[in-house]
Amino acid sequence: QVSTQSTGTNKNHLNFGIMVKIQAKTLRTKKSVDLRKELHDAKTTLQELRVAKVAGGSASKLSELKPARRNVARILTVLNQRRKATLRNVHKNSKFKPLDLRPKLTRRLRRAARQSSLKKETKRAGLKRKQFSLRLYAVKA
To answer: Which of 2, 53, 92, 123 sits at a 20 to 30 Å CA gap from 59?
Structure first.
């Protein structure tokens, strides 16, 4: 258990990092070109932090690694969401869609035959059903 001091602050929950968290809602307002530029900047800062880690950087530098990784992930997420949204609009009425736009489901459900194809009957089966239909008999009680 972690004991709390009289001030009520817990040393484990303090963030000493200077790295600012980029908010996704601000990223969504920017253009794709700006986002790519920001992604490049975020990746370079992340690379610098990794070099500082290997070189034995200070604790404040090391604490900036996690927010830097998260910032890169946020930017990539917004870019991928935009790409997927445009693909959805392009393939809205098309018969075939790219794999990443199809419903995920499970492997078994994706490979299962559709109900419409299961209900279809071949010519031969139809003829057999008509010629040898189930006979109904009335039984006296």
So the answer is: 2
Residue type for position 30: K
> Could you tell me the pTM of the whole model?
0.65
Rounded Cα distance, 118 and 136, in Å: 27
Compute the distance between CA of residue 106 and CA of residue 9 in angstroms, rounded to an integer: 46
- H-helix segments, the chain: 24-29, 32-54, 59-62, 65-90, 107-111, 115-119, 123-131
CA distance 134 to 4: 81
Contact 45, 72 (CB under 8 A): no
* Residues counted in the chain: 141
How far is 23 from 28, CA to CA, in rounded Å? 9
Using the structure block, give the residue that is written with the tokens 């990746």: 43
90's enclosing H/E stretch is: helix 65-90
